[in-house]
Amino acid sequence: MSRGVAGVSRGFGSGKVFIPFITCGDPDLETTRRAVLEMVAAGADIIELGIPFSDPTAEGPVIQGANIRALAGGITTDTIFDFVLSLREEVSIPLVFMTYANVVFSYGIEAFAARCEQVGIDGIILPDIPFEEKAEFSEIFEQHGVDFISLIAPTSANRIAMIAREARGFIYVVSSLGVTGERAEITTDVSSLVATIRENTFVPCAVGFGISTPQQTHDMVAISDGAIVGSAIIRLIEQYGTEAPAHIGAFVKSMKDAL
Fold first, then answer.
1. What's the CA gap between 19 and 26, in Å, rounded?
2. What's the rounded Cα separation, in Å, for the pair 134 and 163?
3. pLDDT tens across 216-254, in order?
4. Are the C-beta atoms of residues 160 and 132 closer than 8 Å to each other?
5. Burial, 148: exposed, middle or buried (Cβ in 10 Å; 0-12, 13-18, 19+)?
6. Global pTM?
7. Is the sign of the CA dihedral 90, 94, 99, 104 positive or negative?
């Protein structure tokens, strides 16, 4: 299968979306492959693929652990590119990389973006790149047809409109201050963030950081275009290892049903 056209935004073509995250190579790439296929079968609309990094500053302990396990297993950026290329024979929904600036910079921004285009990556999220410094990366990725996805956090304040107007693909709305991880409840006024975004762009927005239950997913998609879940999925890998894919599929189905 090929990815078709229109980048990440095509994942938003049929209503509210669910976007699961998984760290590539945790515990191995074959488990990642089976988990992705289970997520697709369960109704995932877009999938975030994490490229492991030794210092993932936006991540809480659960996803940090996934990064450590994947790197200890010998995963590299090139093996992940090869993995995505083979995955594209079976998966046609949008795929988005989530990693850190140093991973891209050390590979070479142009070389990394070109490889993303070659293997069928639709978008990239670099949470440690401030909006004011994104041009060095975003312009090159966009030349290769890869959406550079912006994040808007509760601390973005008077920058929300500016970020929204330049957004591509979708906007990642950070629901909670701090690092990734499950939250018992989400107390941020996400609806006001989304309202400001909608005043400034037609680009869809999805909420992440802290979402781990079907009820939270339901609540977040009631005020946005989609929900992003990572730590709850990684915790299933922690618990079940190579047997995790079936459990991940059931979890994604329960989240998708909540939409």
1. 18
2. 11
3. 888 889 999 999 999 999 999 999 999 999 999 999 999
4. no
5. buried
6. 0.91
7. positive
